[in-house]
Amino acid sequence: MAALHNLNYKQIRHSVLNNSMLKPLVFICLTSIPAVVAANTTPFQHVKNAVFWQQLYTEKHHTLYCAMSNNTSQDVTVGHVYPMAWMANAMNCPSENQCEYARYKEASADLHNLWPVAEKSLQLRQHYLFIESDKNSGEASYCNFTIFDKGIEPREFAKGEIARSILYLIWQYQLPDYGQLPLMLKWHKRYRPNAEETWRNERIMAIQGKENPFITNPGFADEVFSAVTDQ
Questions:
Q1: Mapping DSSP to helix (H, G, I), strand (E, B) and coil, where does residue 20 land?
Q2: How many structural domains comprise the chain?
Q3: pLDDT in tens, 50-109
Q4: Does residue 32 fall inside a structural domain?
Q5: Which domain range does residue 17 map to?
Q6: pTM, whole model, 2 decimals?
Q7: Which string of DSSP letters, residue by residue, matches 128-194?
C-alpha cells in the first residue's frame, strides 16, 4: 500500500466532485463571512472571537472530548481537531504563526474543524495522533481522554465527530492524513452522525457556505477514499 500521506487528495477530490451528487455544491471561501477582519487578526482569531460563539453556539453546547455542557464550571475554549501545527507542517511553514498561504488561513478557520473543548483536554490533546488502544497502559487521563506512548484516545462517543472533521480537512484542503485515515474511516463507519452533529453541520453551512459531506452523506467516504480503501 502506498504511504497514505503521499496520496494525491486533490486529484481524488476533483474526480469525486465531477461525478457525484456534490457537483451542484458551491464551496465558498471562509473569507466570505460578512465581517471586517482587522489587519493584525488572523482568520482563525476572527472566527474564534466573532463567529464561533456569536453565530454557531449562541445558546448551548457540549464540549467535544468531555461532553461538558455550557453549565459546567470548567473553562471552555475553541479547539482544532486537525491541529494547526499539522497544517503548517504540511505546507512547509516555519510555524503556525508564520504561515501566509491562503489555504492554511482558510483551513485553520474552517468551522467544521473547530469545536468547544475544555481547556484541560486541549492541553492534553496538543498535537498527538489519535489511536485506539486497550486503555490499560495510558499515562494520563481526563474524562476518558487518555494519553499513550503512540498517541491519544478520546471517549467513544467523540470518535465519529473527530473522524468526520479530519476526513473533511483531508478532502477539502488536500492535507496529509499522517497515517490517520484507516482509523478515521473505521470510526466514521462505527459512530454515525447524530442529531446534534447534523444540526451543527447545517448551521455551519448557513454561516460559511460549506457543508461537511461526510455528515450529510456518510457513504461519501467510501466514494471519495475508494482509491485508498481498495488497495
A1: coil
A2: 1
A3: 999 999 999 888 899 887 876 655 689 999 999 999 999 999 999 998 999 999 999 999
A4: no
A5: 4-22+42-229
A6: 0.81
A7: PPB----SSS-SEEETTEEE-SS-EE--GGGHHHHHHHHHHHHHHHT---TT-HHHHHHHHHHS---
